[in-house]
Amino acid sequence: MKNLSLISSLSRILAIVLLITTSSCGKDELTAAIETLVGNWSTGCIVGESSTSYKIVQTFTGTTLTGTTYYYSGTTCAVPIYESQSTGTLVKGALSSNVSGAVNYDFTWTSVTITSKLDAYTTQLNNMVNGGGAGVTGYCAYTDWATNVAKDVSARNCAGVTMRTVGNTHYDIVKITGSTLQFGAVNATYDGTTADKRPIALDSTYTYTKQ
């Protein structure tokens, strides 16, 4: 199903969240930096596969963060299809030893959900063959999807993709340059699943601007 292909290619996005930056110049400057991060950071509209588009918004509230990816039909981010969202707690670490100016952070999931925003898409989710793995009907093994109702997809098999697990921690880095934020580049070696596998370079694919 063409819209669902985005979930596989963008599953890592469920893990993305904002970071509290740090400074070596003193507590007052650190406090000021934290205050400037409270709010929303967003990508622009990104063209996806099969005439779809999406944008990612990270919401920082001090000690909790929510990352939401909004998916659309068409290439202008105008007609909502579904939303994927991860929420959790944030622990700020030390400065990265690999990327100048970046800071380590650990994000622990408390919620991982998907919400259908279109009735026709809801029907497709409920009837998706192998949507919960081989021989299992319904996306993420659910056959009771309802439009505008969030479904808990933590640790579930969703069309062959294992979703993030509530209680697990993602280890990452973030760097803020002016009004632009970047996260760490995830790969097979540095996938963020442990502190030793924390990314050692910045991801140039997605950049976020303070809204």
Question: Would you mind describing this structure in some detail?
Answer:
The protein is mostly beta strands and 211 residues long. It has one domain. 12% of the residues lie in helices and 37% in strands. It contains three helices and twelve strands; from the N terminus they run H-H-E-E-E-E-E-E-H-E-E-E-E-E-E. The strands form two sheets. Strands 1-3-4-5-6-10-11-12 form an eight-stranded antiparallel β-barrel. Strand 5 and strand 6 form a beta hairpin. The longest helix has 11 residues. The N terminus is likely disordered.
Count up the helices.
3
Cα distance spanning the termini: 33 Å
In round numbers, the mean pLDDT is 84
Low-confidence stretches: 1-33
Largest sheet: 8 strands, antiparallel, barrel
Name the quaternary structure.
single chain
Q: If strands are numbered along the chain, what order do they take across the biggest sheet?
A: 1-3-4-5-6-10-11-12
Count of strand segments: 12
Question: Can I get a quick summary?
Answer:
By secondary structure, the chain is mainly beta. It contains three helices and twelve strands, in the order H-H-E-E-E-E-E-E-H-E-E-E-E-E-E.
